[in-house]
């Protein structure tokens, strides 16, 4: 079992009618705020007006950055950072899903960078020691960005999508009102739910390292929560209990509490980021297509017992099966959950993806090190084989 340090500095307002504290919370960090949001969903649900009213009542000067893309782009980050520098912005307010929050984290870092191109920071060509403070209002349960320090940014010019942790980038305050997720489409709800599960699989659960049993049990409970409530929210977007459970599960899947000092490459995430870098697909959908194929590819006498345990405790697989049969049943149950119950399309070809870039993507996924080391070690040839299983 590993040693670890746990700290999570994000203050959470969870539940209905908490937004009346937004103005005062943002004002704690200064007078000038950059308010960033996506393609318009927050206007359609009336949240934009409520946020603007809060900021006005607190006497704040507001600059807006609309149009943050899903799979946010470094050029949008550069635009936001330029506003921050020009106007002397004190604090960022991200209202949206993971893309808007991630863009704000990169803006917060670039605003403290003497250069102008955020890509220098994403690639490690330059570094920063601090970021502007960030407050978030979350509208989609998926990434955990509302309570973690990471951000993922795309460069469409080079087909790169890179993740990084900047210093002090955890949001200082996040507002989690499940009613703000009522309008998330069944497709985004399903994809977001897969993302929550994948964070647990990828960062901690499917690991070669020894893990504290308490944490593995909590991971199984969070996974079971998603298996229980994602189908409810896909069917009825206005189900408060389902939306609330998914929202809090998303935050806890990636806020550090479940990790137990495990250090491994998040293999499925590294592989999926190549898909969304090259084809701009929805992150959680890419993970849904990859995960069962990845588990099938890495299945061996060594990995089977843990896959079987997952099947038994989370997917209701028959405990009397042997390790290999149980693991196969677990993978089949996961496939049925993603592609049957949640209704996600199961093949890359369904998304218009062929094998043109597989070799390049596989090499990039394995990075400079040349391998992905998590549940098993994967080489570019392994990753390419997994892509082919997904066609
Ligand atoms: O842009 P708008 O109009 O807001 O529409 C968005 C977008 O089209 C829509 N949406 C969000 N809230 C809504 C809503 N539609 C209706 N009602 C609402 N309440 O949903 C679409 C997807 O939004 P996006 O923010 O892209 O989704 P998500 O939260 O899944 O974020 C995905 C991004 O986060 C990265 C992914 O790679 C991807 O770029 N990740 C970030 C991580 C992190 N920071 O820790 C970890 C993850 O593994 C992930 O890589
Ligand atoms: Zn993810």
Task: Give a short summary of the structure.
The chain is of the alpha/beta class.
Search tags:
single chain; 391 residues; alpha/beta; Dehydroquinate synthase-like, alpha domain; 6-stranded parallel β-sheet; 15 helices; binds 5,6-dihydroxy-NADP; binds zinc ion
| Average of the residue pLDDT scores | 97
Return the CATH topology of the largest domain.
Answer: Dehydroquinate synthase-like, alpha domain
Strand order within the widest beta sheet: 1-8-5-4-2-3
User: What is the CATH superfamily label of the largest domain?
Assistant: Dehydroquinate synthase-like - alpha domain
CATH architecture level-2 label of the largest domain: Up-down Bundle
Radius of gyration: 20 Å
**Element-by-element helix/strand order:** EHEHHEHEHHEEEEHHHHHHHHEEH
Overall number of structural domains? 2
Percent strand: 5-15%
Please give a structural write-up.
The protein has 391 residues and is an alpha/beta fold. It has 15 helices and ten strands. It has a six-stranded parallel sheet, sandwiched between helices. A two-stranded antiparallel sheet has the order 6-7. The protein is globular and about 65 Å long. The two termini are 38 Å apart. Zinc ion binds next to helix 7.
Can you lay out the helices and strands and say which pair or pack?
Elements: E1 11-14, H1 22-27, E2 32-37, H2 41-44, H3 47-57, E3 61-65, H4 74-87, E4 91-96, H5 98-110, H6 118-122, E5 134-138, E6 150-155, E7 160-165, E8 173-176, H7 186-205, H8 213-235, H9 240-253, H10 267-279, H11 283-298, H12 304-314, H13 323-341, H14 358-366, E9 372-373, E10 377-378, H15 380-389
Parallel strand pairs: 1-8, 2-3, 2-4, 4-5, 5-8
Antiparallel strand pairs: 6-7, 9-10
Helix pairs in contact: 4-5, 7-8, 7-9, 7-11, 8-9, 10-11, 10-14, 11-13, 11-15, 12-13, 14-15
Bound molecules: 5,6-dihydroxy-NADP (NZQ) and zinc ion (ZN).
